[in-house]
Amino acid sequence: MSQLPKCPECGSEYTYEDRGLFVCPECGHEWSASKEAQKTAEGVIAKDANGNLLQDGDNVTVIKDLKVKGASNPIKQGTKVKNIRLVEGDHNIDCKVDGFGPMKLKSEFVKKL
């Protein structure tokens, strides 16, 4: 028996496959089986602002000023961030930014060096 993934919306374990899609009977969410297989095979997939694939350990540059809650100054455009780590979620880059410390960034606001 194959192991089907849990629903990404509600976390239900009662998913089933129907014509190349995974379906959740509890919330009705449908998602592509090929995307799920690709994520499982490759880990987290993230693309920068130019569409380049990012990987753990890459160096990136911030492409616009980013306001930071609780900080008096924003992260300036052109700030270099070294040795990123990709994680699941909306803010899919975990890194350390000089002058700000540990931070989570969205991949759409950076470009690969």
CATH superfamily of the largest domain: SH3 Domains
The structural class is mainly beta
Run of helices and strands: EEEHEEEEEEEE
Side by side, the strands of the main sheet go 1-2-3
Into which percentage range does the β-strand content fall? 25-35%
- Domain count: the total is 2
Share in helix: under 10%
Q: Span from first to last CA?
A: 44 Å
CATH class membership of the largest domain:
Mainly Beta
Q: Main β-sheet, in a few words?
A: 3 strands, antiparallel
Note the overall shape. Answer: elongated
Poorly predicted runs of 5 or more residues: none
In CATH terms, what is the architecture of the largest domain?
Roll
For the residues shown, what is the average pLDDT? 86
- In CATH, the topology of the largest domain is named SH3 type barrels
Strand segment tally: 11
Number of discrete helical segments:
1
Radius of gyration: 18 Å
Could you outline the blueprint of secondary structure elements for this entry?
Elements: E1 16-18, E2 21-23, E3 30-32, H1 33-42, E4 46-47, E5 53-54, E6 60-62, E7 80-81, E8 85-86, E9 93-97, E10 101-105, E11 110-112
Antiparallel strand pairs: 1-2, 2-3, 4-5, 6-7, 6-11, 8-9, 9-10
Domain Protein YjdM C-terminal: 47-112
Organism: Enterococcus saigonensis
InterPro entries: YjdM, YjdM_C, YjdM_N
